[in-house]
Amino acid sequence: MTDEQYAPETMRERLESVERRLTEAAERAGRSREEIELVAVSKTHPIESIETLYEHGVTSFGASYVQEWEDKYEQLPDDIRWHFVGRLQSNKAKYVADDIAMVHSVDRRSVTKQLHRRSSGEVDALVQVNVAEDDSKGGVAPDGLEDLLEMTLEYPSLRLRGLMTLPPYEEDPEDNRPRFEQLRRLFDEAREWIAASDERDASIFEYLSMGMTNDFEVAVEEGATIVRLGTALFGPRDY
């Protein structure tokens, strides 16, 4: 990690490149850039780099670790829309329930229960689906999605807004296209299930969170409405 990595001009150039690629991918799919929310995943990156992107119009940021997010949350503008994109431990749910705009990683009862119990109002959440069925990743298996959707009906403060997936890194982003296609099909099926249940508002089930630095253009072509980008905006992470 160097000072040059976070130089305002360098970050502005990265953001411009990302915006151009997002626009071109959306156009290839007959979509508008405005349909896609850009979430800048800021884990391990300094406050100053977040401020730079914010000054250039980025208002949605992603957090992966509760403690790191709490430290940054206190120092940054109140109108930032924070997304929790990491795997949330149930005993940490109480810290994010009221101040995170959207939790991307609901995949089991314990997390759902704690978000419901610890929130003072409604919690917007996405169900994480492990379309690659990769044991190293979180998420419900595709054939378990309907059971999880049914289980969440027990927790009315949880507002299901859509689906998320975290596919494996592939050298060729085209290798993840079938996984993005599968998530889109699951999204359509889940929306139909919610509409038929009469217990949830299917109109707010509208987000597909998929696509990261290596494959976000393919994800946009397949219908992503949220992309989660770290390296493309901040440069490489220092672990």
Descriptive notes:
The protein is α/β, with parallel strands linked by helices. 38% of the residues lie in helices and 16% in strands. The chain has helices spanning 8-28, 47-55, 66-73, 93-96, 109-118, 145-152, 177-197, 216-221, 231-234; strands at 37-41, 60-63, 81-84, 102-106, 123-128, 158-164, 207-209, 226-229. It has an eight-stranded parallel beta sheet. It is globular, with a radius of gyration of 17 Å. The model has no long low-confidence stretch (mean pLDDT 94).
How would you summarize this macromolecular structure in one to three sentences?
The chain has 239 residues and is an alpha/beta fold. 38% of the residues lie in helices and 16% in strands.
Architecture blueprint of SSEs:
Blueprint: H1 8-28, E1 37-41, H2 47-55, E2 60-63, H3 66-73, E3 81-84, H4 93-96, E4 102-106, H5 109-118, E5 123-128, H6 145-152, E6 158-164, H7 177-197, E7 207-209, H8 216-221, E8 226-229, H9 231-234
Parallel strand pairs: 1-2, 1-8, 2-3, 3-4, 4-5, 5-6, 6-7
Which overall shape is indicated by the principal axes computed on the Cα atoms?
A: globular
Mean pLDDT over the full residue set: 94
Strand content: 15-25%
Main sheet properties: 8 strands, parallel
Can you count the beta strands? 8
Structural class: alpha/beta
Helicity level, as a percent range? Answer: 25-40%
Strand order of the largest sheet: 7-6-5-4-3-2-1-8
Radius of gyration from the alpha-carbon trace, in angstroms: 17 Å
Low-confidence stretches: none
What's the N-to-C terminus distance?
10 Å
N to C succession of SSEs: HEHEHEHEHEHEHEHEH
* Count of discrete alpha- or pi-helical segments spanning 4 or more residues: 9
